Each structure stands twice: as structure tokens, then as C-alpha cells.
Give the backbone structure.
Amino acid sequence: MKKKFFTIILMFLVITGCSVSDGELKDYVQYKHNAEVDIVSRPKIDTGNGGRSSFRVKHKDIPEFRFSVFVDGLFFNRITGDNYKESLEFYEFNQEYMESDLHEKFKKLGFEKSFLQLYTTDDEDGFKGSAYLFLFKPGGIGVDEQDYALLQQSYPLIQEVKQTLAGLEYDLYELYVYDVNAFNRFFLNENDSKDYKIMNEVSIYKTDIEKMNTVERVKEAIFSDSLNREKLISYHFFKKEEQKVAERMPELNKLGFEPDEGFYYGFVEPYLFCLDGSDDYVSYESINIDACQSYDLNLQTKGNLSDMAEENKQEQIMQMLSIVKSVNLPINNVRLKVMDGKYVDFISLEDIQKISDIRALEAALEEQVAKEEQ
């Protein structure tokens, strides 16, 4: 009994601990740097990082100037330092870049906005001396030969960026290319939901940046990354075919089903999701960009798992499946997010063509409920 009690207390300390408060954090910055800040993100303290994490803050008067305040301690958290000086130096360097001829060259090429950002980690002793380059153009980067050609044309300019960074003893760690509408999200750290809609975006690591001197090598640099491939292929087909599902959405709404755009590994997953780019071993050349071979349809509905056993709900699901099957697309699976207030469960109805009656649906639901209860 004592052992169980001690375990409960230990778990409570791990979860709650004695963390640095927002007020303590702001007092620290005010005292050490005579600056007022807003908190962008708070430390994630767990046994995985041993309590070594950081606050991410932005200057109240200069919101594009951000830096980290580091903390340590799993049970009793304390501030150990910050990277204010390094971040301020890099911020001033980026301001110079944004007024430079190099910035203007990117703009003339088609990247309406761009900026450099210091690479940061949660760990005070983490990787240092690296930077990101962010490029923004209308529409982002899609499955499009013109976009590939544009990135290839930017290669000499990216080399100039690398040389400039090297003069400050930094290297170019990663290149990001986004839709221009996402500029404020990254530059000012404004997480406006309107900016966070589905858009074409890619990231290219430093080892692959060197491969971008030809169009074919640009494709290789982009699509060798599984997340890039998954995002671009899914967005490509969502834009191409989503209207076919949207036309039937009012019928699905009446049955209590709505589209579900989930946040997945840093990007918004389309509710109509083409799976052709999701296989880790698939090559870009093998993907038919004219026709997706298999889709997931992600929907959400109110209720809980026990509701799924009710006759009325099962009839609604069968009607929903009937509508989905009638859409002229190869939708093979329906992923259901079942929401009951703050509680969320997920049900995966796979190979929906085989769910032809209530008995088949009950079997599929029972299998899913069993998995959720394990």
C-alpha cells in the first residue's frame, strides 16, 4: 500500500512538479535584459528530457525578435539561462538581409517574402551555429514542373545565403518553402487559424539542398523526404478532387457527420486524403499524379463508443457509407473521430465496399471498440 501511495505521489510530481511560472519567467527577462516579452510556448517537462526544456518568448515591442529561456529540473524546475544575445545578433543580421540585394533577387525570382531564422533547440547545450531559410511564394510549392524549375533557379541564390551565413560562422541547416499567406505565422509567430489551412509546403535539409542544381535533383531533394511526399501528393489530389465530396457534404451534415482536418506532424491533413504518397518505399516516379489510387475520408461526429452500438447511430453510419460509396472516387476507408465533449475516440472503417449491411457494420465496429479498449 505504501509503495502504491509513493508511486501516486511520484506520478503527481512528474506531472505537476514545481515549474517556473509565467510571472517568474517575465521577471527574469525584465531583470536581466530590461525587456518585456510575450510567451510563445512553454516548456514540456517530462522524464524523456529530464526537465531540460525552454520557454520560447517574443519581444513585446519587436514581435519578430524571439529567443529561448532555458529551464532545468524534472521535479523542481529553475531557469538556467537564455540565448538572448545570440538571438539578438541574428535578428539584426536578418534585418540587414531583408533589406539586401540578395533578398530582392529572391523577390524578383518569385519569392515575394523571405527571411532567415536562428536554429534553436529546447536544450541549452543543444545544437548551435545553424539557421533556417524561409521562402514564401503564392501557392507554395506544389506538384508542378514550374515550381521545380523555380527552386532550381533559386539554387545560386541559396548558395549566396550559405556563403553569407558562413561569414558569421553559421551553416544553412534547412530550407522551408511556404505559401505567402503563411508569412505572419512564422515571421511574427501569429498562429492565426486562417493561415493554417491546407497549403503546399516543403522542407529540405542541408544535405539535400546541394542536390538542387538541376530540376530532376530538385524533385529528388523534395520527394526523398516521406513527409514532403505525403503532404504534396495529398494536397495535390485534395485540390483536384475535393469538390466531388463537398457536393455531398450537406447530406452528410444532416446525418451528423462533418469533415475532420487533423493536425498531423506539423501540417494540416486534408479530410480527403490520398494515400498514394504515404508509403515510405514508394518512389515519386511511380505515382500517377493524374489519378489517386486510394483515399481515406476523415469525418467527425458527436457521441462516444457506446453510442456506436445503438440502432439509430448504426443506421446513420450506413447512410453515410452509402453516400460516400456513391462519390466517384476510390474512397476505401472512412476514419471517424467520435467526440464527447473533451473526450475523443477514433474508429477506422476499412475497405468500406465490404460493409454492405448492419451485420457487417456491427462486426467492424466491435473490432474497433475492442482495439480501443485494449
Summary: The longest strand covers residues 331-340.
